[in-house]
Write a structure and sequence with these properties.
The chain is mainly β and 390 residues long. The protein has three domains: 3-132, Immunoglobulin-like (Sandwich), CATH 2.60.40; 143-249, Immunoglobulin-like; 252-284 and 310-390, Pnp Oxidase, Chain A (Roll), CATH 2.30.110. The protein has helices at residues 73-79, 329-338; strands at 3-7, 12-14, 20-25, 36-44, 56-60, 67-71, 91-104, 107-110, 117-118, 122-125, 155-158, 165-169, 180-185, 188-193, 204-208, 226-233, 236-246, 255-260, 266-271, 276-286, 308-321, 342-347, 352-358, 377-382. A hairpin with a 5-residue loop joins β18 (255-260) and β19 (266-271). The radius of gyration is 28 Å and the shape is flat.
């Protein structure tokens, strides 16, 4: 009688989508009264080694195939609750031990008080998979640009004043780890060395993406410049290149939006067309009692207001319009629509941002075949109101 795995997570998974262990008892023991598979799950940050007890004890009845299927994604995802803006490397280590128990002689019988089948070491990122990607697919297989943690698009635009960074996965994922990120452009070439550690906080690094970001290795970029970014291991290219055009003069001041993508890192887009800010208020009023009712005679103050505001809240709406785009932007716009962390970089020289919540609930996505160039309007509510109320 022994337990065996029928399904294991990949080396690196995304915690918002299924992260599955499947186990089976390879005899017919699972037909015993109230037979259950048990899973003792632990997760942690820091070094690869951990000591102490398990965090969760999970049980599953066998399915019709006699297998116990444990999806631990919700537990892992609940622990990845820090802002990506503050923490670039949102990574959890986890492992699990398995056993079984069944009811016999008025008590539960277990093969052992400790797990008889123990998994290896795995890691999970703050992100999600997409349909129709298979269950337990390793993360590097999801992106053409990996270890650059983005889905593109392959061609993008920036201004010479833009800031921004891109997440680079430097840990072990079952794929080659990068040693540098190479920038090639019309003004020359540059390279930034990257390295990681086994600590969870050293699995992802962020390198400069845009001309004004600190550490950007190309100089003298102007409105006619182009450049590419690509990860390398030594002299071997890893993943596809990202292409950037530095935009020339524009009529409106661009609105630069950044949002957490499906890998837990940030994508950026400049909205070059008109921007509209709408400032509104909501209020509640009451009618105060006027007059000197506690005095010897009744009088009133002519400066008093017969309608008093006692609660006044504010709200701000931001509406932005994209330039004419290629169809490749459709996919990352979908990630913008579902993102739970969005910012407006309203002061690029000082790297100041305002948190946003997207209020656009639906977008009619167009194709380049039917619409040679595509333009979108997106609306947000600003997450910090006019009043500082904590």
């Amino acid at each position: 009688m022994a337990l065996a795995f029928t399904q294991l997570p990949p080396t690196c998974s995304l915690a918002q989508s299924p992260v599955v262990f499947s186990v089976v008892e390879n005899t017919s023991l699972y037909t015993e009264n109230q037979f259950q598979y048990t899973c003792q799950l632990t997760y942690w940050t820091g070094s690869t080694s951990v000591s102490g007890s398990y965090d969760y004890f999970l049980t599953k009845y066998p399915n019709t195939s006699g297998v116990g299927i444990f999806d631990v994604s919700r537990v892992l995802n609940s622990a990845l609750n820090q802002l990506s803006f503050d923490y670039s490397s949102s990574v959890l280590y986890f492992n699990a031990g398995f056993n079984y128990q069944y009811f016999s002689a008025s008590a539960y019988y277990s093969a052992s008080n400790t797990p008889t089948l123990v998994s290896g070491l795995y890691k999970s990122l703050d992100g999600y998979a997409l349909f129709p990607e298979p269950i337990n697919q390793n993360v590097p297989s999801k992106s053409l640009f990996w270890p650059l943690m983005t889905d593109g698009p392959v061609s993008q635009s920036v201004t010479s004043n833009d800031i921004g960074s891109i997440g680079v996965y430097v840990g072990a994922t079952g794929a080659t780890a990068p040693t540098r990120v190479v920038y090639s452009g019309s003004t020359g070439n540059g390279s930034v060395a990257v390295s990681g550690s086994t600590d969870s906080t050293g699995q992802i690094v962020r390198v400069a993406l845009a001309p004004s970001q600190s550490g950007f290795p190309l100089s003298n970029l102007n409105d006619t410049s182009t450049y590419t970014i690509q990860a390398f291991s030594g002299s071997t290219a890893l993943g596809a290149k990202l292409y950037f055009d530095v935009e020339c003069a524009y009529y409106y001041v661009p609105t630069r939006i950044m949002w957490k993508n499906r890998y837990g890192q940030f994508d950026y887009c400049n909205f070059y067309k008109a921007r509209f800010n709408t400032f509104g208020t909501e209020q509640r009023t009451y009618q105060p009692q006027l007059g000197s009712w506690d005095a010897t005679t009744l009088t009133y103050n002519t400066a008093q207001n017969n309608t008093q505001r006692y609660i006044v809240n504010t709200n701000e709406q931001l509406d932005v319009n994209s330039d004419w785009l290629q169809e490749g932007f459709n996919e990352i716009y979908k990630q913008l629509l579902v993102s739970d962390e969005i910012y407006w970089i309203y002061d690029q020289p000082n790297n100041l941002v305002k948190p946003l919540a997207i209020t656009t609930n639906s977008v009619k996505f167009k194709t380049g075949v039917n619409n040679k160039l595509i333009q979108y309007t997106v609306s947000f509510s600003v997450g910090q109101t006019f009043k500082l109320i904590i």
